[in-house]
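Service request form, structural biology core

Requester: graduate student, group of Dr. S.
Request type: structure prediction, single chain
Budget code: on file
Notes: please return the result as structure tokens.

Sequence provided:
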Amino acid sequence: MSLEEVRSYMNQIRREFADRSLSESSVKENPFKQYALWFEEAVNSQILDPFAMCLSTVGLNGQPSSRIVYMRDILDNGFVFYTNYLSQKGKELLSTPKAALNLHWGELERQIRIEGEVVKAPEEVSDKYFAGRPKESQIGAWASAQSDILTTREELEQKVKDYSERFKDIDVDRPEHWGGYILKPTKVEFWQGRASRLHDRIVYTKEGDDWVVGRLSP
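Core staff response, request fulfilled:
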């Protein structure tokens, strides 16, 4: 497509949403239980990578940045993902330990928006997850200086070979620069697409130890 054709497509092609409803009375008492309910429906709908989410952080200059990561666990107090602590997102979370998550399930016309504070996961949590990863992925965590400039692809492949030899006949230890983060939510919104763009938006807001449920205008 030419740029003009792209612009024309964006402005002319529209589709109507289904009319599935979401109400304050129909949701669970806290966002973790509601997330579990929607996640089960996403899995049953055979959505590809239902745990994939957009993670947004902010740099020292106030510039937001976003990328897709996998949610790999849910604890009593938050949502867990893993990364290189020295990556761009790791550095940004060190300076500003707050983030936003967005899970979009287009097939179900749903998205979940999560905002909150971020802390590193306990070392034993990261150790357990890392130990269960495929060995190739473990070696990749050692070989990749994530977000740093890479001169050539061959440079990365050589590092993979070097670390593969190093850990050839032994278990791969978790690098100190790699591990988990927990996003502890203060706000969680469940968005359900509705006809005429009059979507249902049910939001949970943390007040002390309690969750307050409300509705937002579409």
